[in-house]
Specification:
Elements: E1 3-5, H1 14-23, E2 28-30, E3 34-35, H2 43-49, E4 65-70, H3 74-86, E5 92-96, H4 101-105, H5 116-129, E6 136-141, H6 150-159, E7 164-168, H7 182-186, E8 195-199, H8 205-215, E9 219-222, H9 224-228, H10 232-241, H11 252-266, H12 276-285, H13 290-299, H14 305-329
Parallel strand pairs: 1-2, 1-9, 2-4, 3-4, 4-5, 5-6, 6-7, 7-8, 8-9
Length: about 325
Amino acid sequence: MTISLAPMEGVIDASMRRMLSAIGGYNRCVTEFIRVTNSVVPTKVFHRLCPELMEGGRTKSGTPVYIQLLGSDHGRMAKSAAIGVRAGALGVDLNFGCPAKIVNRHNGGSALLKEPSKVGEIVDAVRQEIDPAIPVCAKIRLGFDHANYLSEIVERIADAGANELCIHARTRTDGYKPPAYWHFIGELAHPKKTELIVNGEIWTVSDARNALSQSRCRSLMLGRGGLAQPDLAHQIQQALSSKNHTYSPMSWQQVLILVEQFYRESDSHNPKYAGNRTKQWLGYLRKQYAGANQLFVDIKRLRGIEEISTVIYQHQCRLDLQSGCERDAA
């Protein structure tokens, strides 16, 4: 089974990919989308948004990173993909699932699901432009405001030569409201040469089991669930590969170390935006950890680089003290 880390705009950057892949469980990461507009994407942009390209296209723990492109012009998408591959990309992912209104207004992301032929055209152009040895993948939703075109979209993507197709089991209109309709994927005729991957509303090991069963997929992609529990991929791999797994999920004390690292490396350099990504991540972590909720409350209105750092440090000190007291009592 393969577990991929989703390309979540605004929070899963190189620092987050490095941390989560180091915990284990992920077989692949995908970058935040790289927008292809009126010109092809230059090499320097790929290197800026995917610094792993300068390290063999992998995170420090060795997990491959695919670049993700978003756009509607098949020619520029193909040429941009070729530049990305020459820059070191190990795979190319095409975004047909982004639900953001600003992206959809410019005929990008999930807006393209209203035109199955256009989706197929883009995948075909990219596949023809780059080395056959480089995987081409796509990410879609069930549709824009309905799933009536889903079978056709899947067929066109498969016929165009995509190696993998990840399906977020909701329409663009559904947004991120539960539930995810994994069974829609299971009802499809799965292509022989294009592996289908299930995504959406996978927060626990139990969710992973149900998603795989209902979708008839062998692999999955984690997004928000992986942010809420940094070791969720590892939990799932352990649970599904061993009958007698004894893995203990990460504690809030362990996760807080990662939060401090993420803030220091990725979110504390620009005074104008200091803490924004960390607060966004805490918004997911608070679903799983009470301590994350308290930290979020304590820093949500703070803007200063040092004051945010101080509050995080204070939380760490309190946890260390509490742990010391518990050991003494034992």
